[in-house]
Amino acid sequence: MAVLFVGVFALAASFVMGLMKSSGAYKEGLARAKAYPAVQEALGAPIKDGFFVTGSISTSGSSGGANLAIPISGPKGKASLCVVASESAGQWSFSTLSVEVKGSSESINLLQEKEKEPGQNVERAP
Questions:
Q1: What is the pLDDT of residues 65-95, one digit of tens each?
Q2: pLDDT tens-digit profile of 21-33?
Q3: What angle do CA 48, 115, 35 make, to 5 degrees?
Q4: What is d(CA 34, CA 18) in angstroms, rounded to the nearest whole number?
Q5: What ranges make up the beta strands (E) of the chain?
Q6: Is 103 helix (H, G, I), strand (E, B) or coil?
Q7: pTM
Q8: What is the C-alpha separation between 52 and 95, in angstroms, rounded?
Q9: Cα dihedral value 112, 123, 76, 23, nearest 10
């Protein structure tokens, strides 16, 4: 009986993770993080997403909201991509989109940080 319970729980968790990963907020936020030079510098490339996304997504028609913490990693380290977004008329707008690098106080704000040419110092969000 315990094996059946564990199997049902794993199936339900996989279904919920699949729903979160198929959302526009997840896909767009992850794509921006993967393409952002400062994130590539901090984590290395390629950047991959982890399985256990936490948070919530709610949608109703073409509107909704998302508050997610997405584990990401690269050859140089691990981080958490923080996504807070709202959807209106099918378009996602981000109020928070940042990468918190594990093992350091480094936080990369993908919404406010100015991109710089390779080799220049990158200003980090406070």
A1: 999 999 999 999 999 999 999 999 889 999 9
A2: 768 899 999 999 9
A3: 20
A4: 20
A5: 48-49, 54-60, 63-74, 77-88, 91-101, 107-109
A6: coil
A7: 0.76
A8: 22
A9: 0
CATH class, domain 2-109, is alpha beta
- Assigned token pair, 47: 């950047």
Assigned token pair, 2: 């315990």
Cα–Cα dist 122/38, whole Å? 7
Tokens at residue 109, please?
Answer: 């704000």
By the 10 Å C-beta count (0-12 exposed, 13-18 middle, 19+ buried), 70 is classed as buried
92 dihedral zone (left: phi>0; alpha: psi -120 to 50; beta): beta
Contact 93, 66 (CB under 8 A): no
Q: What angle do CA 66, 86, 56 make, to 5 degrees?
A: 10
